Amino acid sequence: MKKMILLFSHKLTPLQITDAKSSFGVEEFLLLDDNLQNIWSNVPAELEEVVEYLQPVRDFLIENMQEDDVVLVQGDFGATCAMASFVKSLAGVAVYATTKRDVVEREIDGKIVKTSIFEHIRFRRF
Question: Is the pTM above the cut of 0.85?
Answer without folding.
Answer: yes
